[in-house]
Structures are given as structure tokens and as C-alpha cells.
Design brief:
The protein has helices at residues 9-15, 26-36, 177-185, 224-235, 249-262, 280-287, 343-362, 415-420, and strands spanning 24-25, 43-47, 55-56, 60-61, 71-72, 76-79, 90-98, 112-116, 128-131, 136-138, 141-144, 155-156, 167-169, 190-194, 198-204, 208-209, 220-221, 238-245, 265-269, 288-298, 302-308, 334-339, 372-376, 387-396, 402-406, 423-427, 439-444. By secondary structure, it is an alpha/beta fold. The longest helix is centred in the C-terminal third of the chain and has 20 residues, at 343-362. The structure holds adenosine monophosphate and magnesium ion (MG).
Length: 449
């Protein structure tokens, strides 16, 4: 990444009409983040088995036509379709057998046909295949029933899948299983990808316990690192787990320095609420260029977003691995997503804002999955002027349409109703109360959650 042309928080804010960090609409958060982040550019040539989920750095151009020859789509008999006469059966003599993987040597004259296997090359002059189950065979003669076929049936054409010299896949596409198979079908053993994003994350808060610590009154076990870990893994990011960081300036500074030295992005949870009596916000200010927001949404109102800047992190990093010096991949600093502490708010803000921003940083043209419409089985209270996310279970009604009901307690700390849900009901900024039976938008949890 070049060190030039990086926009500061103030410069981005100046580009947004009516930017109000104290009441920021969800749509403005998305726009802001899209101006803040940039795709990685470093490439990695990877063997196919290691490329699943990675992003293509270049178009994949087909070196040949696929399939390379006209071939049979069926086990059957190949013949010249010009011999078909409407309404009459056709009698043909079988002169040989063409197997897949071998070109048949010989000629097939008028009144003759060739037994052919699926995938076998169609000899010149033959363009039609009758599947073997439809013919009657007597010795070396077959009868093709009337009205069954048209010329060209059951033949795959050369290049019908992919054309030589044309892109079979485009730069920015995610390597899904089907696309891995497609690259393999072109005979390519490796593929040029963008390197995966490295994302460091830690939880903050003196009341947060790491697993293994004995329970303590007023303390809760850290769940945010696990939900964040899961969502990052599903996106194909490399994760750097930095544990729970106590609310002490020296520890926070070391954690941010270490994260900024290793990662493209840093995700923290907790410590960004208004009136929070801790050092997290102060440290973000000290080490970076950061905006503190109250987003017009529920759950997940407080958020901090910006960059942690290598030149400001003088402290020696906590971790020794890969962090003896500044982050060379990332001279402009690591992007900071300072999420609220509430477990559901963390997931909702991740899905609504962090996921699209990370996809952009990954260099992929793939979008987050589209919202679906489902009929609400219950009335929902909703104030216009903020975006609300409710946890819901989407199912199919008897008539086949989609319906949705909420999953119990919608408190922003209640993870059980999140665990029970299969999607989020999105009640948009301008929307008011929802009546039972009304259609609402839902964001289905897919592979990323
Ligand atoms: P905060 O945003 O720091 O004010 O935290 C809001 C609420 O979320 C508090 O009840 C915290 O105890 C809880 N919380 C914060 N961080 C975590 C975490 N890592 N795991 C579980 N709960 C958390
Ligand atoms: Mg806190």
C-alpha cells in the first residue's frame, strides 16, 4: 500500500453532508468506512488447495476452449442429424465405439452411426446423439424412434463452457469451491490471490474474565473475543487474538502498539461508551486518528473508528512475533474498529459495518448477502430516526412465503436470543412501528456467522 493519499478522519468527515458524530445514521457510517479503508495490494501465488476463500488478484484467463472438442453429453449413438426426417423412425448401422479420452479413428458414412460414451469426442460430420435407452438394438443395427430428437441434441459444443483467451473468472472474486474447480479445469495448479487480511482483536474492561479465571462477583466471562473470532474466520481473515486487556494505560498502549505493528485492522470491544471511566478512549486518541460516534442505531450506539498510527505507538509491543518493527505492510496505520462492549451490539455492529469494510479491505467485489423480505408474525415498536436490529427466526409459511418472529429477550447483552436466531430483522432509519403481518427486511446469518 502506498503511504500517500490517505484521508484523515477530518477530511472524510468534511466529505459527508451534515456529519454529526453524536447522531450518525447507519448509512453515513457505511459511507464513512468506505472512504476510510482501502484494499490490500500484496499478492500471494497459492496452490489451489490453499486458495479456498481467498480473493483473486487477477483475472483468470482461459488458455483453451472448454470443452476443447465437441463431445457427447450421453452414453448413446452419434450420427448426422441431417438424416432425421420428421415423423419417421431412423435405421442406422453401428460401425464402432468412441470412448471418452480417445479420439475415434475412422469414418461414419450415411446410414451409419457410432456407439459413443459420455464425454467422448464427436467425430467430424456427426452432431447428434441418441441416448442408448431410447433405441432398439438388433445385432449391429439400431432404430431411433420418430419425433424424439432434433439435430444437435445431446452434444456439448467446443467452448460452450469457457472460451480461449477470455476471462473465466475476474479479479476480486472470492475463490468459492465452484471457482476452485473452474481454475483446476483450466489445468492451473496455482492462482494469484491477494494476501489475507490480518485482524487483531482484544476485549477491554476490568470486569471481563478470560476463560480459566475463577468467577468473581460482578465479573463476566469474555464472550466477545469468541464471536469476533468466529465472524473473522468465516470471512477468511488471519486472526491475532490479543486476549483481555486490563484498563491500565501501559497495558492498553502496549496492546495497541503490538496490534498496529502486526495487523491491517484492530477490533476492540468495550470502553467506548459515553462517560466510560476508563483509559481506552484516551489511548485511542493518543495513538491514532480516531472519531468517536454515537450511531443512530440499536443495539450498538457507541463506536470508535479510525486509524492507530505506527509513528505514535512508541511503546514496545507486547508480542514478540512479527512485531519487532513497524508494520511494513501497513505504513498508514491499522484501521481501528472500536466496538461497544455489549455482546449483541458487538455482533450487530460487526455485521452491519465491520464486515462490509473488511470485504472492501480484502479487495473483493463480493458484497455482503442481500436483505430478504419476510412477513413479521408480530407487531414491533420502532422509533423513526434510528436503525434497529432485532434477532429473529425466519421460516417458511404453509404458502411457501417467508415469515419471521423475534427470538425472546432483545436486550443488547442477551446472547442467548442471538444464538437462537437465524437472522437479524433490520428496521430502517426512517421506519416506524411495524404491524403484525407487515413485510420487514431480514439479514440472514450465512456462512459468516
Ligand atoms: P461497555 O461498552 O464497556 O460499557 O460494556 C457494556 C456491557 O457489555 C457491560 O455489561 C459489560 O460487562 C459487557 N461486556 C463488555 N465487554 C464484554 C466482553 N468481552 N464479553 C462479555 N461482555 C462484555
Ligand atoms: Mg466498560
Amino acid at each position: 500500500m502506498s503511504a500517500t493519499l490517505v484521508k484523515s478522519i477530518d477530511q472524510i468527515a468534511a466529505e459527508l453532508q451534515g456529519y454529526d458524530p453524536q447522531a450518525l445514521p447507519a448509512a453515513d457510517v457505511a459511507r464513512f468506512l468506505s472512504l476510510l479503508v482501502a484494499p490490500v495490494t500484496e499478492r500471494l501465488e497459492l496452490p489451489l488447495f490453499e486458495a479456498l476463500g481467498r480473493v483473486l488478484a487477477d483475472d483468470v484467463v482461459s488458455p483453451f476452449d472448454v470443452p476443447p472438442h465437441d463431445n457427447s453429453a450421453m452414453d448413446g449413438y452419434a450420427f448426422d442429424g441431417a438424416a432425421l426426417t420428421p415423423g419417421t423412425e431412423l435405421h442406422l448401422r453401428v460401425v464402432g465405439t468412441a470412448l471418452a479420452g480417445k479420439a475415434w479413428q475412422g469414418t461414419v458414412a450415411s446410414g451409419e452411426c457410432l456407439k459413443i460414451m459420455t464425454g467422448a469426442i464427436m467425430p467430424a460430420g456427426l452432431d447428434t446423439v441418441v441416448p442408448q435407452e431410447f433405441v432398439t438394438v438388433q445385432g449391429d443395427r439400431i432404430t431411433v424412434p420418430a419425433k424424439l430428437l432434433q439435430a444437435g441434441d445431446n452434444r456439448r459444443l467446443r467452448g460452450e463452457d469457457l472460451r480461449q483467451g477470455r476471462p473465466a473468472l475476474s479479479k476480486g472474486e472470492l475463490l468459492t469451491p465452484a471457482r476452485l474447480g473452474l481454475v483446476a479445469s483450466l489445468g492451473m495448479k496455482t492462482v494469484s490471490t491477494l494476501r489475507p487480511l490480518r485482524v487483531a482483536y482484544f476485549s477491554t474492561g476490568d470486569e471481563i474474565l478470560s476463560l480459566g479465571e475463577p468467577p468473581r462477583e460482578g465479573a463476566v466471562y469474555d464472550s466477545n473475543r469468541y464471536t469476533v473470532f468466529g465472524m473473522l474466520k468465516r470471512l477468511g481473515c488471519e486472526v491475532i487474538d490479543m486476549g483481555v486487556v486490563r484498563d491500565e494505560p501501559a497495558l492498553l498502549e502496549a496492546a495497541f502498539a503490538s496490534a498496529a505493528a502486526q495487523a491491517d485492522a484492530i477490533i476492540t470491544s468495550g470502553g467506548v461508551s459515553v462517560g466510560e471511566a476508563d483509559y481506552t478512549k484516551a489511548m485511542m486518541k493518543k495513538l491514532g486518528d480516531v472519531a468517536f460516534w454515537r450511531v443512530a442505531m440499536r443495539p450498538g450506539r457507541p463506536m470508535a473508528v479510525g486509524r492507530i498510527l505506527p509513528e505514535k505507538t512508541g511503546a514496545s509491543p507486547l508480542s514478540t512475533s512479527a512485531s519487532s518493527s513497524q508494520n511494513h505492510n501497513n505504513p498508514n496505520g491499522a484501521i481501528l474498529f472500536g466496538l461497544p462492549g455489549n455482546p449483541v451490539a458487538v455482533m450487530v455492529t460487526f455485521l452491519a459495518f465491520v464486515r462490509p469494510a473488511l470485504l472492501q479491505m480484502m479487495g473483493t467485489t463480493a458484497a455482503a448477502p442481500p436483505l430478504l423480505k419476510a412477513r413479521s408474525l408480530e407487531a414491533m415498536r420502532k422509533k423513526p430516526g434510528r436503525t434497529e436490529y432485532q434477532r429473529g427466526t425466519v421460516s417458511r409459511a404453509a404458502d411457501g412465503s417467508l415469515q419471521v418472529r423475534t427470538t425472546g429477550n432483545q436486550g443488547s447483552g442477551v446472547l442467548s436470543s442471538m444464538a437462537e436466531a437465524n437472522g437479524l430483522i433490520v428496521l430502517h432509519h426512517g421506519q416506524g412501528n411495524v404491524a403484525a403481518g407487515e413485510d420487514v427486511d431480514v439479514m440472514m446469518f450465512d456462512g459468516s456467522i
